[in-house]
Amino acid sequence: MSAIAAQDAGLICGVMQVSDLDEVVAVEQRIYSHPWTKGNFEDSLNSAYYARLLRDAEQRLLGYFLLMPVFDEAHLLNLSVDADSQHRGYGRRLMGEAVNLARLHNLQTMLLEVRVSNRQALSFYKRYGFCEIGRRKRYYPTATTSREDAIMMTMPL
Description:
Blueprint (H helix, E strand, L loop, with lengths): L2 H6 L3 E4 L5 H11 L6 H9 L3 E6 L5 E10 L2 E9 L8 H15 L4 E7 L3 H10 L2 E11 L5 E10 L1
C-alpha cells in the first residue's frame, strides 16, 4: 500500500448534519480570527448547499467544506482543516471531494475568495490549479477597524 493510500485508510467523508455543527463551530473558532457562526452553517445546510466532513477512523473531525451551487458554478464557501490536522494532506483530500462532488452535479467551474493575508491558503489553491481573477476590496473584517481585500480565484472543472 502506498503512503497516500495508507494515509487515506480509515478516513470517512460524510454529509455534514445539524448534529455535527457544535463540533464544526469549535474547529472554526480554533482556526479563524473571524469564524463562521453556527447560524451561518445552519443557513447553508437549510439552503441545501453541499456540505461534507472528513473524519478519521476514531470519528475525530479533521476538516470540512461547503459548496454553494450557482447555475453551472460551484462556489467554495469554506474549506477548513483543524489546526492539529493541517499539513497531512487532508486539505487536498477535501478539495478532491469538493471537485468530485461539483463534477457529479455537472458544475463547470469552482470559485472562491481568500484573504490576501492567507498565504498558506493562496499557495494551496494555486497548487491545486486555481487562478486569480480579481479582488473584492475591503471584503473581510479584521481585528482593527480596517477591512482586508479578498482574492477571487477560479478553476475549471
